[in-house]
Write a structure and sequence with these properties.
With 319 residues, this protein is an alpha/beta fold. It has nine helices and 13 strands. β6 and β7 form a beta hairpin.
Length: 319
């Protein structure tokens, strides 16, 4: 079982238009609702790949039942902490142009503040899931809602690694830097992977740069962080090569080529990459110690899943 965690649950509304006119009434050609948030997207793709998942989040407000029902329709197993805060709604606007191409615009709501008791319950349930669910990997995705402490993500990562369970951390900013500080002086024998995209990596580790980061500065920073914190780094770059670093060695893996006219919705591509990558990691570990070209295989599968997601209207889906 793969445990996914996302502490900013989302209901995603996707609207498709032939074109958008600013300052005018625009009628959608089609619309859909999906349970979403980065962790839900990861879980949906892993489920489509045939892996058992369990998703941990908080859920409250008038939309809780609708959110849970939409997740169940996709066979996503949920474990939720009740809370008073409302689940946020985000909107994807897809413009379908006459030449067959699409343009994606995302409108994001901020999550409501959670109460201190919500964090306590999340932490208790997290420990139970790791210990009792035959957990093969933990994926922690996305920013957390306001009200959760800065210690929670580092605490989760330390708890998981100390039990020899691989962790993929797909978040940024202070949560990521504090997590790295927490693991710096401990020993672990399983992969610890951080997976920001290029923009997130630069904003987290190179904030003084106001323009596009020079490649040599970026590459040196990736190598230094991987070496200091003993982690595997994956930096996705949309249609460009994925930069990976392990044991002070940089590698560049090309993405799966997709014609621009086949790209429909880019929301969830990074989450789909994470799911594909994790599927190979888990499968290889089931066969014994990781060896050979497992990292390249995992990145290639991540690229494949991200490409399939780009061709789907749904966020975080292979079809």
């Amino acid at each position: 079982m793969i445990l996914t965690v996302c502490l900013n649950p989302t209901l995603q509304k996707t609207l498709c238009f032939s074109a958008i006119q600013k300052g005018a009434v625009n009628r959608a050609c089609s619309q859909r609702w999906d349970a979403s948030g980065k962790g839900i997207n990861v879980s949906r793709v892993l489920t489509q790949l045939g892996y058992e998942t369990l998703h941990l989040t908080q859920a409250g407000g008038d939309l809780k039942d609708f959110f849970c029902r939409k997740a169940q329709e996709d066979n996503i197993s949920l474990i939720t902490v009740p809370c008073e805060s409302q689940i946020r709604c985000c909107t994807t606007i897809l413009e379908h142009h006459e030449d067959g191409s699409y343009r994606t615009t995302e409108l994001v709501e901020e999550g409501e503040v959670v109460q201190p008791e919500t964090e306590h319950q999340v932490w208790q349930l997290f420990q139970q899931c790791v210990l009792r669910c035959d957990c093969e990997a933990v994926i922690i995705s996305g920013s957390k809602a306001k009200g959760f402490s800065d210690e929670l993500y580092p605490q989760m990562v330390l708890y998981t690694l100390s039990r020899n369970i691989p962790v993929i951390a797909d978040y940024r900013g202070d949560d990521l830097t504090e997590t790295l500080k927490a693991v710096q002086n401990i020993s672990f024998d399983v992969p610890f992977i951080i997976k920001p995209n290029r923009e997130e990596f630069c904003a987290t580790f190179l904030p003084k740069y106001k323009s596009i980061i020079q490649s040599d500065v970026l590459y040196k920073t990736i190598k230094d962080i991987s070496s200091i914190y003993k982690c595997i780094i994956l930096v996705t770059q949309e249609e460009k090569s994925v930069i990976s670093c392990i044991n002070d060695s940089l590698n560049f893996t090309d993405t799966v080529f997709i014609s621009p006219h086949k790209i429909i919705n880019t929301i969830g591509c990074g989450d789909s990459f994470t799911a594909g990558f994790c599927s190979v990691l888990v499968n290889k570990r089931r066969g014994g110690v990781l060896s050979g070209n497992w990292l390249s295989e995992a990145i290639n599968e991540g690229n494949r899943c991200g490409a399939l997601n780009a061709q789907s209207v749904r966020p975080g889906s292979l079809y």
